[in-house]
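S.,

As promised, the zinc ion run. Input:
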Amino acid sequence: MIQKELRQLIEDIPKAEVHYHIDSVPPHLLLRFAERNKVKLPFDTLEGAKEYYKFKDLDEFLEVLQLTCSVIQTEEDYYEIALDSGREAKQQNIIYREAMFTYANDSHQGRGVAFETLMDGFSAGRKAVKEQYGVDLRFIAELDRTQSFERNMAAAKMYLEHKERFPLVAIGYDYAEMGYPACRHEEVFRYIKEHGMDRTAHCGEEVGPESVWESIRCQDVYRLDHGVRSIEEEKLIDYLVGKEMLLTVCPISNVLVGAYPSIQEHPVHDLMKRGVKVCLNSDDPAFFGLNLIDNFIQVADVFELTEADVIGLVRNALLYNFSGQEHLETIDNWLRSHNKEQYI
Ligand code: ADE
Ligand code: ZN
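Predicted complex:
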């Protein structure tokens, strides 16, 4: 059982979450949008949503995710999604969140939603979130790795063209990993790099070390989203440790999509013990029903983490994110005022 003091620390400490899909929309908002936009969902109550959100693997999860996106249509919808994310972040004492969205596939673009609609709604939401909740919400535009080279190149160009109006912190890469090697989009990521934009990629979630090496080699990523299957190759672990490359690990998500049978068998603690820089995240809390604090509590409980471990995980998300170390001072001041300066 996790100690009461450690649980309290997890709840109270100012945190960052950098792997979080904002277009995985919570059911209460989906139901509101469905009604407002006159779109039918396969469920019409919160209980129905829970029943519907059951997946045996990543593919099944991604299918459900795309389907629910069909109710998001207007700028106001995107605004409300961002605002709700800020409210929920504040409840968990999250002060900084990097929110991902995957526009250029059937989730948004394929349904005819203009990028401006998403961009203006999210931008207004970001401003309101800062004002109302004091949370710094930033965005990462994801490229769907199952899409064609041409579509992703066009999407990357569009994101870069809007850079002044909608300042993204990075471009990422997500969706089904199996059968879709990252080097198919090498030129897209070279283009992104040449245009001065940071890069990240989901990898090492469904596929092993070879997929992680591809993201390193063909996408020149700053960090790895998931990356957990790196544990299967010693040489790769040495590389990640040497480069201080952050892994944005989502333990509950990995278990719920069947990547690991349980938290007990998840490699997060082995990665930490090997000296890999790790932070914890919820991935798609709206779908998995469990948030960042739940991820901390389950991992701390199962692996008997110490106070130093927990603070290390929290600080990593503030040390290696895409906004420099802008918010590190907030948590370090919090540690000083709670007589925990030895962890700084
Ligand atoms: N999109 C949302 N969640 C994802 C995940 N866990 N893996 C890949 N793509 C995703
Ligand atoms: Zn993800």
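Residues 21, 58, 174-175, 202, 205, 253, 283-284 surround adenine (ligand 1) (CB under 6 Å). The chain has one domain: 4-343.

- D.
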